[in-house]
Amino acid sequence: MSGMMRITGIALSCAFAMQANAQMNLSAETANAGGVPGNTVLALGEVASAAGIADIQVATGQTLTNSLQNTAEGKTDITAAPFLLPFLMSKGLGPYAKLGEETGKEYADRLAVLYTYRLGVFGLYAYDSKNFGGYGDIAGKTIYNGPPRGAALTNARGVVKIATGLDDGDGYTGLQVNWDQAVKTITDGSADAMVLPVSFPDGRITQSVASGNMTLWSYPKEIYESEAAAKYMKAPGSGTFDVPVSDAVMPEGVTIISEDGRFRGIATVGGEIVRKEMDGELAYSLTKAFLDNLELYRSKTPFMRTVGLGEIADLGTTGMCGAMPLKYHPGAVRAWEEAGYSVPDCAKP
Question: Which of 158, 125, 118 is nearest to 258 (CA)?
Answer without folding.
Answer: 125
